[in-house]
């Protein structure tokens, strides 16, 4: 019996020692806590790197995982591989029922105005009849592209098409524009093969474009597509998330955005 109890105690001790290695990042503990955030490189990871030392002084180690697509960061957050992500706007989050049922915006930080770019033409007036236009293949950003084209007189969408409009909602297309849908990250590379492409601000920046100078048309600074920090529902009040919020919405970050993107390609909302 004593031998059995001894073995059981050893087994329980082993489990106790092993368990923390598999603990969710949401339950991280210790003097120096970890906050693991998924982000696209520009400007999101850049802004997060700016505040790393500020959080470290508060006992929080900020671990940044960079992604180059718009799907994996939400999937990783739902699985518990991340504590938060920073790359998207609310219309994108709400475009997927699984995401919107599990995740929530903790706070907004900035806007990246969305633009139409071309290597072949200098103005939208130069775009010819039958031109091929590349747009994002996810519903929220695809709709955003079409709304941008409508706002500049290239197409007309049916009433009530909303933020997730598709090319099937086009009721007037004077130039008979053709559309191809691609992953958002692929759009800059598509410019050699299409007449123009509607590109998200972060991917335009990564590709070396100056959105205000290089785009044919661009959203205004009042765009509703605010980039947000997203967490699992119910953890918005986590002290680490609140510390992150305070650091990201600081004058330091606002000044950095203003100085780094003085062309208006990234606009702080705070």
**Beta-strand percent range:** 15-25%
Q: Got a strand count?
A: 13
User: What is the N-to-C order of secondary-structure elements (H for helix, E for strand)?
Assistant: HEHHEHEHHEEEHEEEEHHEEHHE
Distance between the termini: 67 Å
Largest sheet: number of strands, sense, barrel closure: 6 strands, mixed
Question: Which CATH architecture of the largest domain is right?
Answer: 3-Layer(aba) Sandwich
Shape: globular
Average pLDDT for all residues: 89
> Taking strands numbered 1, 2, ... along the chain, how are they ordered across the largest sheet?
2-1-3-12-4-13
Nearest-angstrom radius of gyration?
A: 22 Å
Provide the structure class.
alpha/beta
Overall number of structural domains = 2
CATH C-level class of the largest domain is Alpha Beta
**Unreliable runs, pLDDT <50, ≥5 residues?**
1-24
What percentage of residues falls in helices of 4 or more residues? 25-40%
CATH topology of the largest domain: D-Maltodextrin-Binding Protein, domain 2
CATH superfamily of the largest domain: Periplasmic binding protein-like II
- How many helical stretches? 11
